[in-house]
Amino acid sequence: MHPDLESLLALQDKDKAVAEAQKALDALKPEEDALDQELGTHSKALDEAQRGVAGAEARRTELEQRIASYKQLQERRRQQLDFVRGAKEASTLMAEIDLARGVLVKEEADFLRSGDAIVEAEKKVKDIAKQHDAVVAAQAEARAALEEKRAGLLEALDAARRQRDEAAKGVKPQMLGRYERIRRGRSPLVLYPVRHDSCGHCMTAVPLQRRVRIKAGDSIETCEVCGVMLYAEE
Predict the structure, then answer these.
(1) pLDDT tens-digit profile of 49-61?
(2) What does the pLDDT look like over 208-232, one tens digit per residue?
(3) DSSP state string for the chain
């Protein structure tokens, strides 16, 4: 066995442990996303309902202001009527007053209905808020369990990374550099055994002379095709 092989295989085992810990942590995401999506749907509905109340209140305020403006305008027209001398001018002013009266009646009717719209919008908010709170309560236990599981998995991941860092210290710098370069590549692992005279990763045949060196422990060869490190199984 090559003198560096044992430390490299130990490092690879630690990398496997880190990957498994990360995989377990990532496996929580779909469940967390499903809970967030469910709650998000109800939160969005609640926001829309609250905007509906704000819109209804703004509409009522707008109508109130317009009604006050119409009344002031009507009062000025009536005052003008007292100073009008010509019949034609008086007739025109009266027609304006009658027209404005009709508009005012409609605006006041809309103002009364706007109060009902606010009540209805507030009721909708109350109903949706109750549904939202029910979802929050229903999810509480599941979220607490997920949070507890996440905390445990994060702790395991941190421990695995620390152990990996310690294992890396046992590898010679030059060999560690080779290992890290290969690890950043496409293959799942860095070291593969020679099996049936071929690379254990890509199954490319390993030349006889290289197999002899690998088996004798003279060197740690790399596959000519996929670039992984090769070693002889004991």
Answers:
(1) 999 999 999 999 9
(2) 999 999 999 888 999 999 999 999 9
(3) --TTHHHHHHHHHHHHHHHHHHHHHHTTHHHHHHHHHHHHHHHHHHHHHHHHHHHHHHHHHHHHHHHHHHHHHHHHHHHHHTT--SHHHHHHHHHHHHHHHHHHHHHHHHHHHHHHHHHHHHHHHHHHHHHHHHHHHHHHHHHHHHHHHHHHHHHHHHHHHHHHHHHHHTS-HHHHHHHHHHHTSSSS-SEEEEETTEETTT-PBPPHHHHHHHHHTS---B-TTT--EEE---
